[in-house]
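Supplementary notes for students who missed Thursday's class. We covered one full example, reproduced here. Read the sequence, then the structure, then the short commentary at the end.
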Amino acid sequence: MAGLRMDAVVVAGYAATADAAADDLDAAATEVGGDVTDESYGTLGAQIGLGASYGRAAGALRRQLADGAEALRSAAEALRQVTVRHGGQDTEAAELIKRAGRLG
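Structure (token representation):
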């Protein structure tokens, strides 16, 4: 595409940032929930099932964090592929320029 410039180092940095963010989400997911029971909230909490409710909410949050981490890793991989493909195109273009110089 004419006029499009890409700095492979910058794009690779974005990929690394996305991977690091995915790791952060994974770490956060392990922290969610803990050992919560109905008794953790006292007698009233046990009577109304607060522990179970919290457990369901924590499970939903863990799934969302895992989905977010997966999406970030997918984006990072796509960025790495773009970098590799772009680098290959630069190599091909340089070779074509060299050949054109030899022909001229």
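Commentary. DSSP finds three helices and no strands in the chain. The chain has a mean pLDDT of 85. If anything here is unclear, bring it to office hours.
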